[in-house]
Amino acid sequence: MVRWSEFLMPYETAVEELKGKLKRIRDEYRKNNEHAPIEFVVGRVKQIPSIIEKAKKLGLGDEEVDKLDDIGGIRVICQFEDDIYRVVELLRSREGMDLEIMTEKDYVQDVKESGYRSYHMIIKYPIFTIQGLKFVFIEIQIRTMAMNFWATVEHSLRYKYKGELPAHIAEKLKSTAHEVYLLDKEMQEIRDEIISAQNLFMHKSNTSSQILTAIGNLEIMDRYDEAAGYRRIFNQINVEKAPDMEEQMEKLSLELKKAMSLDKESVIKEFARMEGLND
Fold first, then answer.
1. Do residues 146 and 84 lie in contact, with contact meaning Cβ atoms separated by under 8 Å?
2. In the CATH hierarchy, which fold is given to the domain comprising 4-165?
């Protein structure tokens, strides 16, 4: 006879510990002002009737219920699809330290027939009890918010139909699963475009800052004519906003670096050459 309260306690402890560890990883990213691949984490321990029902289906006796690999469950929700794989790598990096990965199933790429997408891992996790060290199996599901929305609704509908959905409803759910997948892809593309634009802006801003600093340094060195000439070129590039503006800025930055190491007469000659090319 299983003493359920005692049996489930290590699973409850494991779920709470893992939730805490994953949330701390998320908080560390946020404190460093970095994008956190983890949006939120939830966990649960199976209800006793569900454990008994599954054990019977698998032909397991009372003394074998600990062979079930999903009594304890963690769900990690991400914003974007590529965050899923970042979380997977984070978990893999802990292999041999505080967990052992038993199996991995990528239902994001190898989508289920129903349309279900998620990344599943079964880990073996150590728990210290008053009886000593015990290892429990925990299932970790990693999915986007959109995937989670679909899976939650699909599970609810399947439960209402006691697992047997009418064919036309199953087909509609499969179709909406594909739409959810396309939405995830589009949102990730939008995010990537925004990041690319931000990086470009930062690069341009840094280059402009370097140019203005170098011009200021020339002025400090009493090389006012040179500084004024470089400032004219800088302003001209900004006014024209040519397609190769970034390239021109890079070129000007390099010219200024050279100028700082050349004597005044050499710079004036180089200057005349540059202005002649711009005429």
1. no
2. Beta Polymerase; domain 2 (3.30.460)
